[in-house]
Amino acid sequence: MEMNIDELRPHASRIHFTKTSASQINAIRRALLSDVPKMAIDDVEFHLGPIRDEATGKDYDSSTSLFDENVALRMGLLPIPTDLKQFRFKDKCVCKGEGCANCQIVYSIDKKGPCTVYSSDVVPMGDTKLTISEPNIPIVRLGSDQALLVYATAVMGTARTHAKWQVAQSAGLGYQPHVSVARAKECSDGCLKKIPTLCPGKVFSWTDGKLKVVNENGCVFCEACEKSCSHGSIKVEGDPTDIHFDFETDSSMTAREALRFALNDLRRRLEELRDAVVSIG
Ligand SMILES: [Zn+2]
């Protein structure tokens, strides 16, 4: 297998694999989706009863337009910044599950209506580098007499337990297209003429009176070209050994960090499998 990173943005990447197969790339896809750990809010403590504004002396109602469970669920889905070198799973931490700076982050929200509570209102207690990098995710709208006062604890987990611990999103693979034009005797110009305008990927162009393939990578396998010529002049094939792979992260970590962890973890598990098979003899 050979690998070339075509595009590497902070939270998205496109990788070109050659001399490979769909099953190998699918193993990487599944490792990215299920095995990369991240921090996510797992416990939310709501203040119940009146919430007093010390400056004005006004009492606010602690109930909002959403059930507390919904607010907690939305907070669970926020992309909590995760440094994989720093954070540990709680049960494997040196604190033996008690909770410390290496295995949990405590956030608070203290907002009074009328307003919309956003992810930027979820404030880390301690290190400001743990501030959520996406500030505009709405959580709940507060009426003029409503307030929200909560403490939330984020811990490490993986998407094998719950989707809120899923780092990678929109992970998908596609074969490299190979498009060829071999004009059949039966083809009229009318038969092929419309193909450049039919093709959404701008794959074809008329050059010197001939239909030519000018942008093979633009092909999305829609088959519009093949269907427009009933004489079989156009052939579109996908190469199963030559694969493009795309994925994004939820911004809790960079695409590079997620990919590095997934590849190392996959290698570790394959080595364990190999050792187990060898030990059977
Ligand atoms: Zn700990």
Computed CA radius of gyration, to the nearest angstrom: 27 Å
What is the H-and-E element order?
Answer: EEHEEEHEEEEEEHHEEHEH
Give the overall shape, derived from the CA principal axes.
flat
> Could you tell me the number of beta strands?
14
pLDDT < 50 runs, ≥5 residues? none
Quick tags:
single chain; 281 residues; alpha+beta; RNA Polymerase Alpha Subunit, Chain A, domain 2; 2 domains; four-stranded antiparallel β-sheet; 6 helices; flat; binds zinc ion
Could you characterize the architecture of this molecule?
The protein is of the alpha+beta class and 281 residues long. The protein folds into 2 domains: 2-35 and 170-246, Gyrase A, domain 2 (2-Layer Sandwich); 38-165, DNA-directed RNA polymerase, insert domain (RNA Polymerase Alpha Subunit, Chain A, domain 2), CATH 2.170.120. The protein has 6 helices and 14 strands. The chain has helices at 22-34, 68-76, 189-193, 195-198, 224-228, 255-280; strands at residues 2-9, 12-18, 38-46, 51-52, 59-60, 104-112, 115-118, 123-124, 138-142, 147-157, 168-181, 204-207, 210-213, 234-249. The strands form 5 sheets. The chain has a 4-stranded antiparallel β-sheet with strand order 1-2-14-11. A 4-stranded antiparallel β-sheet has the order 3-10-6-8, with helices on one face. A hairpin with a 2-residue loop joins strand 1 and strand 2 (12-18). Helix 1 packs across helix 6. The protein binds zinc ion (ZN). Zinc ion binds at residues 93, 95, 99-100, 102-103.
Which helices and strands appear, and what pairs or packs with what?
Blueprint: E1 2-9, E2 12-18, H1 22-34, E3 38-46, E4 51-52, E5 59-60, H2 68-76, E6 104-112, E7 115-118, E8 123-124, E9 138-142, E10 147-157, E11 168-181, H3 189-193, H4 195-198, E12 204-207, E13 210-213, H5 224-228, E14 234-249, H6 255-280
Antiparallel strand pairs: 1-2, 2-14, 3-10, 4-5, 6-8, 6-10, 7-9, 11-14, 12-13
Helix pairs in contact: 1-6
The structure holds zinc ion.
